[in-house]
Amino acid sequence: MAETLDTGGDQETAATRFLERFAMIMSDSGYPRMAARVFAAILTSEEGRRTAAELAGQLRVGPPAISGAVKYLMRVGMITRERDPGQRRDHYRVDQSAWYKAALSSDEVYRRFEEGAHDGLAVFSPDTPAGARLEEIERFFAFLRSEVPRLMHKWQELNTVPKDG
């Protein structure tokens, strides 16, 4: 179960609902459903990490589902695996730079769309409706490719500013 304040079950229920809503957002964005649920469970855990057994119990699924999900999440750089000295169980933790890495890795996707639209302009003149749409797609993805690195640099600057407190 999610580690939450004891408020007669209301907080636990709210935490579970949030976990499932956040997982749905990830799933709707292209992440496999179980991987999204595992990520959300780790993200919302009090310690910020979970064992496979804890994940299986919390999400009420079998070990194979957890195994596939953590392999996927590790492969795409969303979580890391760690083991405490002298312990046999692995713990999975959200990689704090996961969103940053995901945004940077989008450049390859943006490049492919930009190039694909550019290739289409060899077939469809920009003076045609299809060509005009392709030209807009090409410009849009070129724009994203030029802006994302600047935004990531700005994020790094903002994220390294000491927090008051």
Description:
The protein is mainly alpha-helical and 165 residues long. It has 2 domains: 10-94, Arc Repressor Mutant, subunit A, CATH 1.10.10.10; 98-159. Helices cover 64% and strands 8% of the residues. The chain is built from 6 helices and 3 strands. The chain has helices at residues 10-28, 33-43, 52-59, 63-75, 98-120, 129-159; strands at residues 49-51, 79-83, 90-94. The chain has a 3-stranded antiparallel β-sheet. β2 (79-83) and β3 (90-94) form a beta hairpin. It starts with 9 loop residues before the first helix and ends in a 6-residue tail after the last helix. GO terms for molecular function: DNA binding; DNA-binding transcription factor activity. This is MarR family protein.
Measured by DSSP, the beta-strand proportion falls in 5-15%
CATH topology (fold) name of the largest domain: Arc Repressor Mutant, subunit A
Structural class: mainly alpha
Number of strands: 3
Could you give me the name of the CATH homologous superfamily of the largest domain?
Winged helix-like DNA-binding domain superfamily/Winged helix DNA-binding domain
User: Residue share in helices?
Assistant: 55-70%
Which runs of at least 5 residues are low in confidence (pLDDT < 50)? 1-7
Sheet with the most strands? 3 strands, antiparallel
Label the overall shape: elongated
Order of helices and strands: HHEHHEEHH
Please report the number of helical segments: 6
Oligomeric organization of the protein chains: single chain
Q: Which CATH class of the largest domain applies here?
A: Mainly Alpha
Distance between the termini: 31 Å
